[in-house]
């Protein structure tokens, strides 16, 4: 198990940017594929982006392609999600996920979430 702590959420106007961070505990961070999911009120949790163990490959939901970028720094045990051109429909709680599997299936370890609110 790995413990995950997200940060960087907040309130931003449409068209703005935010960068989320997810700090992981333990010395095995590089053994996990990492990802971001989000859950809006009244909706199911959905996949946003994922990155392989050493950052060679990434995957994105169609709704965020071209606007969001996932990256990781294995030396800092941290994964990031840079979100540009934010839209009101991006409003959700964003969760960090760590799993040994690829592609990510929404299993493994989760953080507590960070709220992102985009105003129109």
Structure description:
- The protein is mainly beta.
- The chain contains no helices and 11 strands.
- Strands 2, 4, 5, 6, 9, 10 and 11 form a 7-stranded mixed β-sheet that branches. Strands 1-3-8-7 form a 4-stranded antiparallel β-sheet, with no helix packed on it.
- A hairpin with a 6-residue loop joins strand 5 and strand 6.
Concise structural overview:
This protein is about 0% helix and about 50% strand.
Q: Average pLDDT, to the nearest integer?
A: 96
Strand content: over 45%
How much helical structure, as a percent, in the residues? under 10%
Specify the structural class: mainly beta
CA distance, first residue to last residue: 39 Å
**Poorly predicted runs:** none
Which descriptors apply to this entry?
11 strands; 7-stranded mixed sheet; mainly beta; 0% helix; 120 residues; 4-stranded antiparallel sheet; globular
What is the topological layout?
Elements (H helix, E strand, L loop, with lengths): L3 E4 L2 E4 L4 E7 L8 E7 L6 E6 L6 E3 L7 E6 L4 E6 L8 E8 L9 E2 L3 E6 L1
Parallel strand pairs: 2-11
Antiparallel strand pairs: 1-3, 3-8, 4-5, 4-9, 5-6, 7-8, 9-10, 9-11
